[in-house]
Design goal:
The chain is an alpha+beta fold and 207 residues long. The chain has a single domain, classed as Beta Barrel (Lipocalin). The chain is built from four helices and twelve strands. It is elongated, with a radius of gyration of 31 Å. It starts with a helix and ends with a strand.
């Protein structure tokens, strides 16, 4: 009887300890939901237009950069896709529909700067505020932009550069000398203005 009691007690203890053991469970990281669409800026659908001004009457001279390069970046929203999006603009792709003018701007304006190959920058989108942190002539400065989104994915951003913020007044003077007579108005004064209007248009595709 004693042996039987001992065996029963041992079995009871063993069963109780088994019940108290915690089972280890493996947790796996949730799989990425590939069904969620992502927004990506289309470089081929992006244009960077600018408007400079000459003569004391402030006549507009328009042009654009036909090529803009973006880093490979996507976001779940338009704002996320744009925020911290890095870009570079080859100066060689400047275009004004006037080859003589193009050559003068490249040589006398950008050629007088520290970096004659690219304008670089990063777009920062925070709420309703959009800023392009723009690097030109070896200087990085913020350019505030107004943003307009239409048809869900079409985006227009506009702003005004003041060239003195990028230490580019020397380059502006160099350009004015190269275009001295062309920048004269009826008053005989040759002037090239230091403010330049910028317009960026782009389209975001869905992946």
């Amino acid at each position: 009887m004693k042996k039987l009691s001992i065996i029963l007690i041992a079995l009871t203890i063993g069963l109780t300890s088994c019940k108290n053991e915690k089972k280890e469970t493996k947790t796996e990281a949730p799989a990425e939901d590939t069904s969620i669409e992502k927004f990506v800026v289309k470089p081929e659908a992006t244009s960077v237009k600018w408007t400079a001004y000459k003569t004391t009457e402030k006549l507009a001279v328009g042009g654009e950069f036909s090529v803009i390069k973006f880093e490979n970046k996507e976001g779940a929203t338009i704002q996320e896709a744009l925020n911290n999006l890095a870009f570079s603009i080859p100066i060689s792709n400047l275009f004004t529909k006037d080859e003589g003018r193009d050559a003068k701007i490249k040589a006398s304006f950008f050629g007088a700067m520290l970096d004659t190959e690219f304008i670089k920058g990063t777009i920062k989108h925070n709420g309703n505020s959009v800023v392009a942190s723009l690097t030109m002539n070896g200087v990085t400065h913020d350019l505030p932009l107004k943003i307009l989104i239409t048809d869900e994915r079409r985006i227009s951003m506009t702003g005004t550069m003041n060239l003195k913020d990028w230490n580019a007044l020397g380059a502006l003077e160099s350009l004015n000398k190269a275009c001295f007579d062309l920048h004269k108005g009826p008053d005989g004064v040759s002037k090239t203005w230091e403010d330049v209007a910028i317009e960026i248009n782009t389209y975001l595709r869905k992946n």
